[in-house]
Amino acid sequence: MEKYKPTGLIIYNPESGITAKKLATNLKLKAIKNDESIIALHNRLPIKIRYGNSHLKQQHDTKYNSVETILLCSNSFAFSNFCQNNNIISPIYTPITRMEKKPDFPFLVREKYHRAGKDIQIIETDKDLKTQMATKFHVPFIPTKYEIRIHYILGNVERIFLKEPGPNTDLTYPIRSSNFGWHYKGQAHQDENRYTKARELALQVAEMTGLQFGAFDMAWVPQMKKYIIWEINTAPGLNNHTLEIYTNLLRKII
Hints:
This protein is 24% helix and 26% strand. The chain is α+β, with helices and mostly antiparallel strands.
């Protein structure tokens, strides 16, 4: 139970509960996730922040982040279509059932909704294909040089982190996800020229999507000499340092 009188609500999804509750404490908000709680409390306490939860849009809802922005960013198929329509490089998601020809190997199979790359399956031969993949998506494999996470908050790029391997990570494996021992740990040099394009891309896409805060996961594609956006996370996990940054900036809009 809160040791303070909350001034509003932060609505979070189950996967982001730890971070959302810490933010709620710092911002003196009440953290809720269940539809029943939204129905019961939204008339008494205003919705101040949605942390990855798009359920039950209310008449006087928040834009930090809006239901529409969360729905777009959390649905990989929808975000893929958005990027294609706006000439933004992002993985192309094609439903397995709509594939007109046999794909080139290797390729990835992914879910529409996912977190931390735990859904990724690498398909290298016909033998890897399974019948239960009918509801999943084909995604071409795109070789990249390095990956970064950009924390964007209220119109500004606040931090950029490099994805680095752990001590026992298999560096020959082509997927850099937390499931395979990779994590965003090293803070990138903020003044390096190679991140200028990433900053510009994040600012552009944030404006286009209505994003108020979140984390862009990007990678540099040497063949294209451009960044690809893997996804935008509207409920990023935060360490103590980034939690403080989010707290100080989001406090301004509460």
